[in-house]
Amino acid sequence: MNQHRGSQDAARLGSYYRRPGSGSNVELFAWLFMRWSGALLLVMIFVHLFVNLVLGDGIQQIDFAFVAGKWANPFWQWFDLVMLWLAMLHGTNGLRIIINDYTETSRARLLLKTVLLACSLAIITLGSLVIFTFDPCPDNAAITSLPDFCP
To answer: What are the extents of the domains in the chain?
Structure first.
């Protein structure tokens, strides 16, 4: 009877239950990542919305000069970078789970996950480049659209 109870618990926990010597904890780590990244993303999104929309003049203040002024501070560059990475990895992991659940053949599953990985890496790479190569004072820009610290 006790052994039957253990198999019920294993079935209830699904793929997150790991018996000794049964492989890796990849799905457990993916499950934990979804919980922790989701909670952290909620906090970061509300901070982002508060700083951008509540402080200052609200939505009217958001323009090129606002973003340039914000990204002149390394703290906001890293904040936005971490938010981008977390959001992309969280969403990619969620789509990976959906692909695993709803794709019939292993060949289609591999193809979809390969496309998902390529798209996610491209967005993370491009977003990171934009954040760290952003020029707040571009040449030939209208003076009215530039932040105050530009010459």
So the answer is: 32-145
CA distance 87 to 111: 22
- Separation of alpha carbons 47 and 42, rounded Å: 9
Q: Are 14 and 26 in contact (CB under 8 A)?
A: no
- Can you tell me the mean pLDDT for 77-100? 95
pLDDT of 129 reads 95
Nearest one of 96, 151, 146, 89 to 120, comparing CA atoms? 89
Ranges assigned E (strand) in 1-151? none
- Give the model confidence (pLDDT) of 2-30 as tens digits: 555 555 555 555 555 555 555 678 889 98
Whole-angstrom Cα Rg for the chain: 22
When the candidates are 2.60.120.620, 2.60.40.10, 1.20.1300.10, 3.30.70.1230, the CATH number that belongs to 32-145 is 1.20.1300.10
Contact 33, 86 (CB under 8 A): no
Q: Cβ distance 147 to 72 under 8 Å? A: yes
**The model scores a pTM over 0.85:** no
